[in-house]
Amino acid sequence: MSPKTLYDKIWDAHVAHEAEDGTCLLYIDRHLVHEVTSPQAFEGLRMAGRKVRAPEKTIAVPDHNVPTTAGREDPAQMTEESRIQVEALDKNAKEFGVHYYPVSDVRQGIVHIVGPENGWTLPGMTVVCGDSHTATHGAFGALAHGIGTSEVEHVLATQTLIQKKSKNMKVEITGKLKPGVTAKDITLAVIGETGTGGGTGYVIEYCGEAIRDLSMEGRMTVCNMAIEGGARAGLIAPDETTFEYCKGRPHAPKGGAWEQAVEYWKTLFTDEGAHFDKVVTLKGEEIEPVVTWGTSPEDVLPITGVVPSPEDFEGGKVEAARRSIEYMGLTPGQKLDEIEIDTVFIGSCTNGRIEDMRAVAEIVKGKKIKEGIRAMIVPGSGLVRAQAEEEGLAEIFKDAGFEWRLAGCSMCLAMNPDQLSENERCASTSNRNFEGRQGYKGRTHLVSPGMAAAAALTGKLTDVRELM
Amino acid sequence: MEKFEKLHGIAAPMPLVNIDTDMIIPKVFLKSIQRTGFGKNLFDEMRYNRDGSEIEDFVLNKPQYRNAEILIAGDNFGCGSSREHAPWAIADFGIKCIVSTSFADIFFNNSFKNGILPIVLPQEQVDILMADAEKGANARMTVDLEAQEITTSDGTTIAFEVDAFKKHCLLNGLDDIGLTMEKAEAIDAFEAKASAARPWV
């Protein structure tokens, strides 16, 4: 038998039907659903008189639109349209009988944090959701990717997706990370290297010592942004770190089933000699704490760098860089660590987990944020929030001057009331710095949680290592 | 889904690279629970001033491109989110075909589900089409899906590749779900086999 990659193995284990031209029906083990990309899909089922084929494998939670301020049960806190979407999910979840975590449930949160936290996401699974950051779940060695609403409807009706296999890409991060360098810096550095289209047509497997050394939460941060590099999915082979994280979670197998599952999961690795169509290698010890300067996640530089000039680029990127620099209100040659910010956003499916909260607390403990800076921390789920409160982190944040919010997607995409105003500049732990992403004409610099915390204290983009 | 007939129409040039889904349809317009009505907000922040007035030099606001049905775009078109609102807005505006050197994966798949044909061509050929599109409304292109050919206003023909299954669905306006449901037996059989092998799933 020819050697297989991890992706090959998961793919092969899920092909329910293959047509002569290679078009496959891929069976889906977990379907996550949120309020923004699902209403039209449920409506489509209703109009065609179709049911959800596997409601027990379908998990719904409202996250994109929900306010993150206290008293959010009050519908008046939402715009009419947001309220309609959340109510539509309430109604659809009930009518079609899928698992549901409503806003009032402590387990509610960002769908990509809720899935792993409750043990829905396990190694070797196929996981989809009408959201591009579904790539997050690849950290478990699960094949996970975003789909459009027509595909959401297709999965609801048939528990399969029509797919053609992607190519295999290996991203290896060798060696050890230096202090102050995190999973976020790894994933941004990779996109800086490959570009936002570098992964198009591929599924990435991240490997190497620096990846192995990451916790599950760090691995989720890395895989989360695989989509920002254009890849269909990102994967990390499961190991003891993975099993340890999964064990005992509410929907993880128990007893004999657990033993059987682990035995299978241990077969999920890339065989020696398996073929990769593309290989990218970065040295872990050469990665610096990074920030983005432009309006594409590929616009990445070490915090010690300067704003580039459009002429530094080639082809269509010259015009794109000129547009970005103007949009961001920057000047070529300006030092990145002298850029003053107005706002700090800590949260999102990229960096809204408990370890991210701890990393922030470590930097801001006993300190105050710079006067005039708006700074908010939005935990990724109600459970993350509860744990942060139990560990005393919430008090540290509040004492430092942060707003301590309820769980949701919040200012990562600003569909709820948490938005930037025109020209407001934000150091953000989220995943996209697109024009208008965090609010009309808002300016986003993507950073790690520690870097965001440092920026909150100094009022400018800051090398976190200076505060450690 | 509407059938993709042979298209003869105006092509608009959008050479900017990395046009993302947030540019195509900003999130403030994702709150509808319908599939229609997004066309007026297509490229909203590039197309309108904050007061709702049009930005004159945006390509689709120029008189010669207001009825464009084809978009010739820069590399990595449609990157970013999975929102199908992006192709819904494009289709609702009246654009039925997009040509670029590459598309983001999810956007590419979403387009086919909505009767839009995304075509990938090498840079030199996109450059030819971009130059043709720059000529304005008098320069109409023909996109023949059956023959897999684009013909420019001066008669140059460019062949393109398209997945056979996706082509079949577009030409016949077929609904994927109906087709998959015909394979219910295969899905049932897979489910039985998989739940025996991996009962914890």
Question: What's the SSE blueprint?
Answer:
The complex is a heterodimer of chains A (468) and B (201).
Chain A: H1 6-12, E1 15-18, E2 24-27, E3 30-33, H2 39-48, E4 58-60, H3 80-96, E5 99-100, H4 111-117, E6 126-129, E7 143-146, H5 149-158, E8 160-163, E9 167-174, H6 183-194, E10 202-207, H7 209-212, H8 216-224, E11 233-235, H9 240-246, H10 255-265, E12 278-283, E13 290-292, E14 300-302, H11 316-328, E15 343-346, H12 348-351, H13 354-364, E16 374-377, H14 382-390, H15 393-400, E17 403-404, E18 425-428, E19 443-446, H16 449-458
Helix pairs in contact in A: 2-5, 6-8, 13-15, 13-16
Chain B: E1 7-14, H1 21-24, H2 44-47, E2 70-73, H3 85-93, E3 97-100, H4 105-112, E4 117-120, H5 123-133, E5 140-144, E6 149-151, E7 157-159, H6 164-172, H7 176-181, H8 184-197
Parallel strand pairs in B: 1-2, 2-3, 3-4
Antiparallel strand pairs in B: 1-5, 5-6, 6-7
Count the helices of chain B. How many? 8
* Helix fraction bin of chain B: 25-40%
Q: Please tally the β strands of chain B and state the result.
A: 7
Multimer state:
heterodimer
Low-confidence stretches of chain A: none
Number of helices of chain A: 16
Kindly report how far apart the N and C termini of chain A lie.
51 Å
General shape of chain B: globular
What's the count of strands of chain A?
Answer: 19
The CATH architecture of chain B can be given as: Alpha-Beta Barrel
CATH class of chain B: Alpha Beta
Beta-strand proportion of chain A: 15-25%
Main pleated sheet of chain A: 5 strands, parallel
Strand arrangement across the biggest beta sheet of chain A: 5-4-3-6-7
Give a quick set of tags describing it.
heterodimer; A: 468 residues; alpha/beta; 5-stranded parallel sheet; 32% helix; B: 201 residues; Aconitase, domain 4; 7-stranded mixed sheet; 8 helices; 7 strands
Describe the structure.
The complex is a heterodimer of chains A (468) and B (201). By secondary structure, chain A is α/β, with parallel strands linked by helices. Chain A is built from 16 helices and 19 strands. In chain A, the strands form five sheets. Chain A has a five-stranded parallel beta sheet with strand order 5-4-3-6-7, with helices on both faces. In chain A, helix 6 (183-194) links the parallel strand 9 (167-174) and strand 10 (202-207). Chain A is globular and about 55 Å long. Chain A starts with 5 loop residues before the first helix and ends in a 10-residue tail after the last helix. The mean pLDDT of chain A is 97. Chain B has a single domain (6-197), classed as Aconitase, domain 4. Chain B is 32% helix and 15% strand. Chain B has eight helices and seven strands, in the order E-H-H-E-H-E-H-E-H-E-E-E-H-H-H. Chain B has helices spanning 21-24, 44-47, 85-93, 105-112, 123-133, 164-172, 176-181, 184-197; strands spanning 7-14, 70-73, 97-100, 117-120, 140-144, 149-151, 157-159. In chain B, strands 4-3-2-1-5-6-7 form a seven-stranded mixed beta sheet. The two termini of chain B are 34 Å apart. The mean pLDDT of chain B is 96. The interface between A and B is large, with 83 and 56 residues.
